[in-house]
Amino acid sequence: MRIILASGSPRRKELLEQIGITPEVMPSHKEEKTESRIPDEVVRELSAQKAEDIAGRLAGTGLLVIGADTVVASEGRILGKPGSQEEAYRMIASLAGKCHQVYTGVTLIYVDEAGDRRSCTFAEETNVYVFPMEEEEIRAYAACGEPMDKAGAYGIQGRFAAYVEKIEGDYNNVVGLPVGRLCQEIKRLTGGKKR
Length: 195
Description:
Elements: E1 2-5, H1 10-18, E2 24-25, H2 39-57, E3 63-74, E4 77-79, H3 85-95, E5 99-111, E6 117-130, H4 135-143, E7 164-168, H5 171-175, H6 179-190
């Protein structure tokens, strides 16, 4: 089966490869639009838009498209990717000493060998607890460059791991793709086929 990842995220590709799935990478460049401000609804909508965009460009059968989107939410507010070092500082400061949520929405679109199309969309939530941080620690992390391409201005798999007290839920979800649940949904959708 041909598996297409509708995302340019190197972290998502690595997570898939870690579980034995080698996807073709075809990032969606469609403008992301959502009316919702509810985090799990937002990620479901955006993952579906990405998967539909790529699935609509592909012909053939025996293919699976994976669309995904991740957001960080703190006190009900969605934190996107920071636009500047100062914005990264503000985001990290707002997370320090508190619990926040990471949501990843995933949409799977499967076209079987007969040309029949099936799809599913789900969202996974993980709670992340961050230790209190000194201002110098926040400034140093904001300046290290790591926050700039990440929702919520941090990467749990990088230097920010030093400040994570604990998580409740799927660690891989925080990295960008809940691969355990993803595999279960793929099996359900495809009748047991993973590759």
